[in-house]
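ugh ok so i messed up the first submission bc i forgot one of the chains. this is the corrected input, ALL of the components this time, i swear. 583 residues overall. if the numbers dont match what u have on ur side tell me asap before i send this to the collaborators (the ones from the other lab, u know who)
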Amino acid sequence: MAKALVFIDNPGAALKKSSLELLTIARSLGEAVVAVNGELHDDVAASLGAHGASVIYRPSATDLDDYLVAPKAAYLAAAVEATGAGIVLLENTADGKEIAARLGVKLNAGVITDVVGVDADGTAHKSVLAGSYTTTAKARTAVAVLTVKPNSVDVDAPAAANTPEAVTIDVPADATANAARVTGRAEKPASGRPELTEARIVVAGGRGVDGDFGPLEELADALGGALGASRAATDAGWIGHDYQVGQTGKTVSPQLYISAGISGAIQQKAGMQTSKVIVAINKDAESPIFEIADFGIIGDLFKVVPQATEEIKKRKG
Amino acid sequence: MKIVVLVKHVPDAQFDRHLTGPGNTTDRDESILSELDEYALEAALQLSEARGGAKAGNEVIALSMGPAGAVNAIKKSLQIGASSGAHLSDDALAGSDAAATSLALAAAIRYLGADSPVDLVLTGMASTDGETSLVPAQLAERLGLPQVTFASSLEVDGDRVLARRDGDAHADTVEATLPALVSVTDQINEPRYPNFKGILAAKKKKITALTLADIGVDAAQVGAAGSLTAVETAEARPPRTAGTIITDEGDAGIKLVEFLAAQKLL
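and heres the new structure output, hopefully the right one now
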């Protein structure tokens, strides 16, 4: 049976949904093993076991977070060699893609990013050119390295408790030799909302919000969704760049995308047009966003959005 | 300071783009200098100018790999202010994936550093066509350079590179020693436009044409043959169609919630 190695960087106090999705894909391909970096809490280890991990690998070094990307790739390369895994799964984040990139060079392995599904034979499905094409791609090498986007699969329910074997991987001594050092780290304040790229629902605002994201925040919170923005809104300084959805920002693919006061120029469409359902609210009936909206409202967002928020609160009691 | 900036000729994202080239590759007819590479070029020009520019021996080389048309991305870079260009072009490169691309570019950068060493390799955060962000990290790995990627600020002090990297959960300050590879985000600066003087000056600047033989790379290592991944199928996604559009008559918020309820999204 093929072995699939899942990399989980700093799992923290509880496993993220995206980590469980990677484990689900790994199990669908064969035997799932996990390489963790950072602290590993007992209940996280138990949860990894319950979700099918047969072995948990950990690095011999504890300072990998003090460097940018490179030593984590060295650790993972050693883990792949120790396990004989044929497929490596990572998160599709900036760090995940770069670790995958370097791992690919180290192992002479094909790397495929932005994956949304993996077939039993290792064929990866992805959407490219800002969602205008879907492709299938396959590594031509003994090892395949895939970075998988969040919300790509439904997480399997945990199976019977199983205690995974714990194995330490020796990180090569020269892993940090040519690496950039992280000299300072400022945690960003938590918004209490789901992460934009992982959220089931995204409420996004553009030029039309005219500096006031208040009504959209209230709607996002009533729906349990994340907040997003167009480039016009982030460039105007109304909201942080982290919230930008689009060609040069984040690509999202939620179940529901509510666009308010966004014209829907191609730069914005590139980041959200693979959303399952798109709702648009805009004063201008000519806005291109209405060409792709499943439900469009020509109207004033400052009237429509608060009314919708009230109605949702009423229904949810 | 000798800086190599990687520039890519990509289909203009303002228009429809297609995967109708051979082997499911991108159709490059309506192509431009990748917007995200302009930030890397601007960062390079600022570093050069802060050290006295070309007069003080600073060099900014715009390197592009791609078919004949890619020379346009280099010409645009020269108009904006790069001091010279290098165009790696070879039929055998067609269909290269990130692994093959980074292998060829690493060899080209070594070639450009043969007479005097390259201090800094600068790139954008991603190409606006492939969008994988793999090539900068793979280049750093192949060249054995410290990797400082997704920099939203950049300073070079002596041989120390200081940068800020904004992640989703935290912002890091990162430090490395030259020579290094740095990729920059679109938050780092405001790229300049070419002016009339720059456009005239560009005509006199040199573009070195490079082939695989020049940089010592075997044709079997690159292109579709040397790639470690293959795109097997490519299908245009059916265009989205407009659904129900209503005009607010005072109850559109309620109707919106009714729509969400009917779609089981509440």
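quick check: Chain A touches chain B through 91 residues (CB under 8 Å). that seems consistent at least. Chain A has a mean pLDDT of 93.
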